Amino acid sequence: MQGQPAPSLDDLDALSTLADASRRRLYEYIAASGREVGRDEAATATGISRSLAAYHLDQLAGVGLLETTFARPEGRGGPGAGRPAKLYRRAQREFALQTPSRDYGLLAEIFLRAEQDDPAARDAIRRTARTLGKELGREEAAADLVEVLRQRGYEPFDDEGTLRFRNCPFHALVQAHREPICSLNLALVEGMLAGAGASGLRASLDPDRAGCCVAIAARASSRKSS
């Protein structure tokens, strides 16, 4: 069974650490960076001292919100290079708080299994995702598209003119249902582009380049005319 387990008190302890403004800024900076970040960089980016940044980063790592590794800076190695620096990245584990307990992951699992077993259900789910995307795009047409995508959990970032996503909002189901989740994501994003009137942009599947398999780029005709 692939349903999400009920949230635990550990989740509460972990997320409660983000009540501190400095820790929240550090966590948000590292999450947005999409890579490993050292203490000096994190301190500079958030405007706090290195020692305070180190304390808060270790607190975040201690409750599982961040993961740590050790590495020497690029170009430095061998004798005299000094000790490896401690680096931080966002943890892959999901955290959630909810009461009373609800299992929307199990509901999604049911729909996805039906999608795999029934081609008609597969087409209906993708049509529905595209329609919902259009509704979301129309509602947020006056807002910045990147912000709309960010609010939906995609964590968009620019990659040499292509908009990619560091996060898949449906990550918990990807391993067991990669193809249908990627197709659903594509239909949803296509709908959002259509609803927002972003006719010069095209969504496509481009897996293994970021956290989500969908990417957005300018249509070929738009690139030629620019």
Account of the protein in words:
This protein is α+β, with helices and mostly antiparallel strands. It has two domains: 82 residues, Winged helix-like DNA-binding domain superfamily/Winged helix DNA-binding domain (Arc Repressor Mutant, subunit A), CATH 1.10.10; 106 residues, no CATH class. It has nine helices and seven strands. The radius of gyration is 20 Å and the shape is globular.
How are helices and strands ordered from N to C? HHEHHEEHHHEEHEEH
Strand content: 5-15%
Mean pLDDT: 83
Structural class designation: alpha+beta
Which residue ranges are poorly predicted, with pLDDT under 50 across at least 5 consecutive positions? Answer: 1-7
Return the domain count.
Answer: 2
Mind describing the biggest β-sheet? 4 strands, antiparallel
Q: Looking at the chains present, what oligomeric state does this protein adopt?
A: single chain
* Overall form: globular
